[in-house]
Write a sequence for this structure.
DNA sequence: ATGAAAGCGCTAACAT
DNA sequence: ATGTTAGCGCTTTCAT
């Protein structure tokens, strides 16, 4: 049946410890013995049983990742980043989808512990102190990623949302827009990144002497953006709004779809700016002007952080802040007229 | 420290075997002993070490999944299907991305074996007999999914592509199109599903007495569809083509983008049909008329198949064929005339 | 019904 | 430099 370290030892005529030593390069082994072991491994096609290994070393080279929904493209991008960097260091990914359920998140965290994962990355869209405190206690290296909520007390990787919003507003103003609306999330504003984005928006509107006009959307999906189009389009027209800054790409795209379906042209009649730069943003027409949240990098940096901790390095900052970028594309133009 | 079965046994004043029996419900245990064990487990917050378990049982409840690129939305959908069904039976997912590299696919398959996964699902976009024969030999239950190539000799889940193409052509013809072009893949046509799709296309064109007009595209990305727009648009116009049937949604979307960027209206000037129904298809404007490949279901059925084998059930068919559906949306209309 | 003990495949002291 | 041995935490005979 499956070949074990014993078989290798027997064939190479050494003890299993010697075999172990050459596999792990953990102690000096005479060239001769090493040669024989290597030969035996080759001939038998021996592959160490990772499970047995994990049992004794009490750790696997598996990183657990709990995501909200792998179907979201930003989540997939984060996973790519995690996967690719992890792979470089021979770490594998154990994937769980919580679909936004608090209890699932916690249960998966426990499950991953049972599986002796080396570290955990959570991509969450809700606020869930239960996992956070569980993870804190368990003393396993982890990173908590949350696109919406400000996470302050846990290791995380994010961008400076205030700065990002400033970039959007500066661009809009420089393009000549004065009547700019902002579409924000209605839920938990004070706890989310919307707080900072709204601040930036309000400040800029103050500076250019315009009235802030804030609309609230409920949900993060393209459909939700479409719905809000339905609810606000009349106000937009009445108030002669020339640009709508949406808190998320999905909302922006939904809104543009609504406008498209009602013969309002983007950007000719109204400019729309998004936030996130999801995959769709550049395939969609008109191509979306938006803030690039570097999802891939967020994933890559997250696992790097965990790997560092695993190697015993001290990681100072709780939050690692990545640079933001405004991607100017076609959904935004100077106001006609 | 971490609490083990010994701790539970001590607290419950039974042997570890009894604890094991309670945990696994493997043998009768007296009500009294069971009660005490349960209580101890509760109080200590004991969670069995899955790694130790796997070592002795020689199998984990982990399903390995090797995908081409988790960034593709169809891949993400398949994974969702696998994940959700797997979860119902307490299986976890170990994820590897091969990025289309043959050797990676093989290496990952070996790696997954080392980790004692219970089964393997491969989502491949290339032809790789090395993994296939490795998997065959290893006698681990697996499913080989390939969107492009006909896989005949390995367990797989797919749709009837011939039938799907018939549906597209019937729809196009019923809408009144006579001058229909088909965009196919240029690579390995004889080995891929394009063979059957082309057959259907040619047969229908023969039936309505039209000239088949086939264009070849190289690649599966939206950009590739855009490129081909550049290459064929003049022919399309010359030949008064009223509908283009593209072998993949990505190609269709790229083509529509090209047409959009060059002021050719879809569907008013030209109808475009895709194949796949990727997530983008319904968010894109015009919404794409396309064949729905049920990715989620493909994933779900794949893991069900593996689970069946794991439970010792015989699974007769190598290939499980799922029903197809034509999704009629907006990118296709009757030819204006 | 329960416990003692062997052993899964490996690593890591400890001896030599 | 190499071998012997004791576990890692669990399941599973085999006795009782």
């Amino acid at each position: 049946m499956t070949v074990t370290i014993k078989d290798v030892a027997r064939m190479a005529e050494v003890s299993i410890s010697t075999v172990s030593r050459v596999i792990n390069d953990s102690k000096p082994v005479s060239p001769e013995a090493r040669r024989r072991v290597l030969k035996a491994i080759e001939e038998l096609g021996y592959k160490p049983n990772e499970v047995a290994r994990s049992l004794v070393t009490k750790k696997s080279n598996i990183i657990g990742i709990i995501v909200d929904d792998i179907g979201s493209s930003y989540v997939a991008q984060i996973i790519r980043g995690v996967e690719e960097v992890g792979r470089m260091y021979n770490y594998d990914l154990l994937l769980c989808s919580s679909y936004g359920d608090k209890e699932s998140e916690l249960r998966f965290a426990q499950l991953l512990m049972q599986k002796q994962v080396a570290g955990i990355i959570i991509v969450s869209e809700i606020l869930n102190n239960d996992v956070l405190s569980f993870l804190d206690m368990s003393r396993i290296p982890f990173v908590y990623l949350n696109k919406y909520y400000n996470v302050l007390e846990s290791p995380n990787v994010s961008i400076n949302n205030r700065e990002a919003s400033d970039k959007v507003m500066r661009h809009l103003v420089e393009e000549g827009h004065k009547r700019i609306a902002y579409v924000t999330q209605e839920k938990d504003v004070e706890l989310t990144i919307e707080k900072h984005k709204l601040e930036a928006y309000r400040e800029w509107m103050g500076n250019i002497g315009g009235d802030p006009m804030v609309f609230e959307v409920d949900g993060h999906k393209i459909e939700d953006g479409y719905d809000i189009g339905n609810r606000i389009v009349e106000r937009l027209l009445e108030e002669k709004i020339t640009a709508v800054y949406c808190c998320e790409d999905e909302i922006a795209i939904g809104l543009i779809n609504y406008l498209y379906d009602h013969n309002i042209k983007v950007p000719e009649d109204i400019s729309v700016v998004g936030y996130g730069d999801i995959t769709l943003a550049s395939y969609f027409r008109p191509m979306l002007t938006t803030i690039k949240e570097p999802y891939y990098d967020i994933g890559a940096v997250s696992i790097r952080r965990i790997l560092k901790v695993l190697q015993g390095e001290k990681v100072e900052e709780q939050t690692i802040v990545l640079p933001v970028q405004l991607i100017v594309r076609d959904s935004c133009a100077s106001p006609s007229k």
Chain A has a mean pLDDT of 95. Residues 14-18, 21, 27-30, 33, 52, 54-58 of chain A lie near DNA strand D (CB under 10 Å from a C1').
